[in-house]
Amino acid sequence: MQSILPLTLEDIEIRRNGKRLLGPVSWVLDGAGISILMGPNGSGKTTFLRAMHGIERISGGRIRWAAQAPEVQQAQAFVFQAPIMMRRTVRDSIAYPLRLRGVSRAQARSAAEEWAARVGLGAALARPAMVLSGGEKQKLALARALVTAPQLLFLDEPCANLDGRATHDIEHILQDACKAGTRVVMSTHDIGQARRLADDVLFLHDGRLLETAPKDQFFTRPATPEGAAFLKGDLLL
Amino acid sequence: MIRVIGICALLMAWAAPSVQAETLRMAVTTSFANSGLSDILLPAIRADTGLEVQLLVVGTGQALRLAAAGDVDAVLAHARAAEDQLVADGHATHRREIMYNDFVLIGPADDPAEIAQADTAAGALARIAGAAQPFVSRGDNSGTHVQELALWQAAGIEPQGRWYRATGSGMGAALNFAVATGGYILSDRATWLSFGNKGDLAILFSGDAALFNQYAYLPVNPDRHPHVNAAAAHRLEGWLTSDRARDLIDGFTIAGTQLFTFNATGD
Amino acid sequence: MAAKLAVSLDGELVEITIRSLQVTITATLIAALIGLPLGAWLAVSRFPARRYIIALLNALMGLPPVVVGLIVYILLSRAGPFGVLGLLFTPTAMVIAQVIIITPLIASIAHQAMRELWADYRDLLISLNATRMQRIATLVWDGRRTLLTAKLAGFGRGIGEVGAIMIVGGNIDNATRVLTTAIALETGKGDFALALALGFILIGLAVAVNLGIHMLSRTEQGSLW
Lengths: 237, 267, 225
Prior knowledge:
The structure holds three protein chains of three kinds.
Chain A: E1 7-16, E2 19-29, E3 34-38, H1 45-53, E4 60-64, H2 69-74, E5 76-79, H3 90-100, H4 105-118, H5 134-146, E6 152-156, H6 164-179, E7 183-187, H7 191-197, E8 200-205, E9 208-214, H8 215-220, H9 225-232
Parallel strand pairs in A: 3-7, 3-8, 5-6, 6-7
Antiparallel strand pairs in A: 1-2, 1-4, 8-9
Helix pairs in contact in A: 3-4, 3-5, 4-5, 5-6
Chain B: H1 2-15, E1 22-29, H2 30-34, H3 37-49, E2 51-58, H4 60-69, E3 74-77, H5 80-88, E4 96-108, H6 121-131, E5 135-137, H7 143-155, E6 164-166, H8 171-181, E7 184-188, H9 189-194, E8 201-205, E9 212-219, H10 230-240, H11 243-250, E10 253-254, E11 257-258, E12 261-262
Chain C: H1 2-44, H2 50-61, H3 65-76, H4 91-127, H5 132-142, H6 144-159, H7 163-169, H8 179-188, H9 192-224
Helix pairs in contact in C: 1-4, 1-5, 1-6, 1-9, 2-4, 3-4, 3-7, 4-6, 4-7, 6-9, 8-9
């Protein structure tokens, strides 16, 4: 399959009920690695991710991909902050995206079993997704996103409310996926996680993209006073 | 999904009527079926002619409508004028008299309107109206209802007022209503005798020639309704007018009372 | 009473009970086949006339069976547009009438249930780029246990219904007589004891079907859920 990247955002803007939620933002997503989206609560991280993924209608600007519509949608995946659990078993949940694409039941199931084992849910295949713990649910969501081998993976605060062990596991899965060639864009407000995972950082404040910088540069020499204040742990008003 | 459709198809086939004997659909009045006479005649018809007669038990008004629409093969009714009209309109080939029973006036056993002392049926109704005692009417355009209206006309009374209650229901439901409210009611004798919920009511007046209730058989006209089973209807007519039918009809009794009298004549 | 039933009605009673089940189960399955996807479709779709369809469905839920019976009767009568099919006074006609009565009920309850599930699944299914058909199929499949309630409600309405099937079935002995029309008949004969006994059988049947399906889905829950 041809690459859907680069993704080019030109002055995208999102307004709802006359209120500006995001933008105008311009950015080019390309290359490999993990980009981490940072910023205080309400800075527009979720909206920004959803807009790129194409599930949030933009009010202005343009989004351009390097490929056509069906491949673009098939080649990306999204992991939501509160993982959406289907009324299915773990096995059938992970197999679901493949079934949507017409993969046979047997093939989808065996791929699901492989991914369940990779994210540490190998023993929970026949359990209903709804009864998993918070960490297990997020791992399931991750396996469900990765089972289609996406070129691009968006994650919205995947480790919010998780304990250290689960967070550690998920970070490992993400790093493996990244090594396997999946471009990752992820939001977090956990500065430590950003330090561990990021190749580069995007800093959002009040719906505007204030900084885009390699990790070391952002953490040592933030270019804006807002970035510096955020890193110091000050409340940005 | 395929499984569900399969189950549906199976159930549909299952729910479809079994086609073993030749069937004939006949609309009959409630009095014929509710009296229990049909339970005697139908098995005999099946045994003698091989015909499975499916009864649609409705009021005479609806029975004749079914015939006019061609939804049944034949009708057994008891409302002369409407039957003649059906033949005149060409929906039935002819009208053949089979048997008769009679209507009776039923009311509370203590008879507050004193209709038992009346000379005629019309006179009895006049007493009910005069005393403004509750009277329950079928009000459903059935043969019994038509008969009742004819009696009111003979009495020269336009029945109306709180005492006159048109229920718009079948014979059984109307009888239940009369029992519950202690009202007077006109019923055919057969239905009344076999009725299971008589309460305090009793036959108070009967025997007037005006209460004579003739049943007639009308085959639906195949020229107008080509799909009807005219051959079967003809065979049934032959049986209904036979000596075998005479014996069964005249021999049918409830509590020792003969209910119907066979009066069909030869061709 | 029980003795009388056992002696006089035995075979006939079994027959009309089975016929009651056949007619209503068939009607319920067909109505579910139409109503469940319709309810799910209304939950996942957004178009201007949608609200009117939902309002119409809710109104049709209260459709008087007698009116349905009359309309089906007129349509299936030899004098009516579908008269040539010769379906009047057959179990098929009764199934048709009951499908019309039950479908809006099932669709409406399904829509309520599917709306909640859709609110939950919406982002995921849009993100996964599922087609509308796939969305509907997913909702119906994943919501199948909740939708059982819709089907049972449909069955309940059908099994106790007398107005429509009396008109289109004709209550013909050995052909279209079912429990409810038999009750009406025995009431008409003034045989309240028998009518009541039949009524208890009808209630027992409805309860048994509900309990049976409930237990069946519970065992499935044990192994799967």
